[in-house]
Amino acid sequence: MMKSYGSPAKGSGRASRLRLFSLIVICLGVVTWLHYDVPEKAETKKADPNTIARMCEGRYIYMYDLPARFNKDVVAKCRGRDDTGQRCAELSSWGMGVPYNSKKPEYAGVAHWWSTSLYSTELLLHHRLSNHLCLTPHAAQAHLFYVPFYPGLHLEHVLGFSNTTIDEYYDDLARWIRRQPAFKRYGAKDHFFALGRTTWLFRRSLSPVLDGANLEQMPEFMPMMKLEVERYAWDDQDAFGLPYPTDFHPISTKQLRKWQATVRSAKRPYQFACIIPPDSKEPEAATKTRQAVIQQCQMPSTSCALLNCSRGDCSHEQVMDLYLSAQYAVQDGSNYGLRYLMDSLVAGAVPVVLWNRTYALYGQHFPSNPDSFSVYLPYIDVPEWTSVEHRLSKVAPARYRALQLQVIHMIPSLVYVDPSHVLSNVRDAIDIAIDHMVGLWRDRKAKHEYPVPSTTSEPGGAGSGTLEAEHGKRVMDATLGELSGGGEIAHQEAEEGNNAGSEGGL
User: Fold this and answer.
1) pLDDT at position 2, please?
2) Hey, what domains does the chain have and what are their CATH numbers?
3) pLDDT digit string, tens, across residues 475-504
4) DSSP track, 189-223
């Protein structure tokens, strides 16, 4: 209802002015509602075939049409995991999970925040590549071949069973893939797949103490390139790091810019924050370090925010709220800690890295100079003598601003864009990983390590006809689009940060 101001209207002139005023208020309300409540449309603009051919030259991807038992049926098994339906909810919306139900201004003005499980990478990648700009239904045209199976999700259902039960799924896929002509062409060197869990769960034969599967040691899969949520320094060059997914899945450059502005202007009353994750099996050194950090955080004189998630009952929104309130975020290097690392970066909190190996996990997504976006504090020093608060107090204000601005600049390269949309002027985490796989394959061809792909044959294998029917029209007509407007994410923050960085040091 409109609220009137002043005395009752007298005469037609005042009535007209009141009607005009009412109309203006209503229009402003409609504009505000449209701006904040109507979901933003993806930046879609059809591109002509010549533009597509130019953008995708040397980087076409062919996706195998696997039998459902290797992907869809694996997801359907979530119904047997628990009676609450929580796991099925986490895997809904192609791995994004359940949308935030938040009225907070930090999230209400930015659509597409989801409670995304840290183990949803395989699903998210599959759906994202189903809509990829350079997806082709023609195997002869492809430069990379994606095998869309879910090794990590499958392992959830069989971990702890006999090795025979665990390996049955992978052995079945190995038999299927061996029959594909494209697999035989280069010995699968141009193939890739994703691992949504730590690589050690797929290397059982390397040590009698390792549990899990033997996927990465199988001859059919060893030559393939891997996208791993935890890439270790001792992995070969065929393994590429892919950050754990966060809750932010933007559909437009506008959303990214809006969130970066929110992060930049966030009030951060705490010097640093840390989370007690729901991990239980850890090396003694990690446990000792974490306990020391927690003790320091709980001291009354310390400006620290602590969130206890040891029982696994913290909401995704609580985690993001925590990191939005702190200047720094202490990371412990555990599986959950690595997901929290990505959450903290997306929230604009400068990471305090305790384990040097963390930098090697995501070399393609992090700046080459770790000092440009993080503070390294060796874990071995924390329990012995180093105060986190004292260490951070030595960071000059100008240096902190430079670190944070670099973190904000990194956000687009760490998030997974909504898998149903294409943002051609933003390189997200998946785009960057694919870029490096394409680069590796190009280098190998340039060195004549492998023959040039044949253009006279059409290797497709079982199911390729179905793939062509499903994806051909979408690839060549419907979803091949370029973004209209938006431009690139502004870079002046990084430039400002570099200038600020020269004002003070650690």
Assistant:
1) 30
2) 49-246+418-482 (no CATH), 254-411+494-501 (3.40.50)
3) 323 322 332 233 333 333 334 344 444 333
4) TTEEEEE-S-GGGG-GGG-TT--S--GGGSTTTTT
